[in-house]
Recover the amino acids of this structure.
């Protein structure tokens, strides 16, 4: 059973609303929010480690773990973006979306 998606405002803009928004399924939104909540907890834990004067190498390992988790969120979001927003814009004839997504990917891989 497919979850309902909100129409893509990039493709179906409302009058007076030029802001683009995502249109991912509720399942995808829940997964992204869940991952971000875990990352937020990791970052709070890192701050606590710093405040408790935990050994630097241990803190650096936790920072690496949090960065990896953020990369995971970015990969998931990029995948969903490519399969929905970008695909729809290409089908609508908007070739400029390719340059936009390439610019974003180049930022991610810096």
């Amino acid at each position: 059973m497919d979850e309902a998606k909100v129409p893509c405002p990039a493709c179906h803009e409302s009058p007076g609303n030029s802001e683009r928004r995502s249109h991912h399924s509720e399942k995808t939104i829940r997964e992204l929010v869940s991952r971000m909540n875990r990352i937020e907890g990791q970052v709070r834990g890192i701050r606590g480690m710093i405040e408790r004067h935990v050994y630097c190498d241990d803190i650096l390992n936790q920072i690496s773990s949090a960065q990896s988790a953020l990369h995971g969120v970015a990969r998931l979001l990029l995948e969903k973006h490519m399969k929905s927003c970008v695909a729809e814009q290409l089908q609508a004839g908007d070739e400029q979306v390719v340059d936009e997504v390439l610019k974003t990917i180049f930022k991610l891989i810096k």
